[in-house]
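Annex B.
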Amino acid sequence: METLQINTESKKYPVFIGNTVLDGLAPFIQDLSPKVTSILIISDETVNRLYFQGTAEKLESISRSLHSFVIPSGDREKSFDNYYKCLTFALERGLDRHSLIIALGGGMIGDLAGFVAGTYMRGIRFIQLPTTLLAHDSAVGGKTGINHPLGKNMVGVFHQPEAVFYSTSFLKSLAEEEWRSGFAEVIKHSLIADEAFYHWLVNEVTEIQKIPDEKLAYILKTAIAIKAQVVAQDERESGLRAILNFGHTLGHAIESKAGYGAISHGDAVSIGMRFALKLSESISGKNLHYIAINKWFRKFCYPVIPPQLEAEALLETMKRDKKSTMGHVKMVLLQEIGQACVQEVNDTLLLDSLEEFIMADKEQNSE
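3-dehydroquinate synthase: predicted structure tokens.
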């Protein structure tokens, strides 16, 4: 088992990574102070079917008041409606300020359940039990929230968990698309902060869905450690933490315009990273290995930009990104592989670059 410590201004908490980490879940909860009065597990239909019973059995010895709320699967379900339903359920079951919420699922559940915990009775405790590779990013750092029709993750709070129990046994059930989606965030961490890790991934990972356990543990520990270092310095994204959004400005716009759930978060971010990397080369005049990295993405079957999306509509959505100020888009760009920065980019350059990028993707798709 690997253990990392997340240190933020508001809270310090552990991340446990390994095949049997859930064995420590009940003892950890039992040691919390004040004592936990009741537990609500929030999951989606798929995860509930696969993992709720086993998780509940781990908690039998410590909780006589265990509740479960299940929502439909899919990112489009990270909605106001399901947020309201979770709050209503918690109130009906009598959860109090000493209750605990467990987010059992991928990034969508982690964001939604964390938002419920962060706002129920002005904030109660919660624990992240991520079940996807993608959630290695979202489960750490305290960002919680839901989607709005006009923008992804536009409503939420910063609310740190008590702990993250990352059981790698959950990952065995993932489909290829979910592995690919999660690996995009792994690539992101390497590109923004660790060139050596980037080269390791290129050399050591040949098939995303067949990563050996020891390599998977190393990948998770390294990627989470990168995020932990950034979050420790900037918990509420007032500066440095914005670099964690590399690829997300365009990625979120793609998810919003295509319709939530039409394209996976990781696939959308992979497109956003390629665009940001290409734009970084154009602005800096440096060779940042876009051609090689683009081929690397194609090797893992990351998609090109959806053909129905147009540059002007994407730009308007990007202007509503959380990093934008007064409608001016701020992009996370690379100065070097492993070194990221945030830079305002004017509309004309962005529009021209987007149109060029979309055209290149169309040509790539026709090959």
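The mean pLDDT is 94. The chain has two domains: 2-173, 176-366. Further annotation is deferred to the next reporting cycle.
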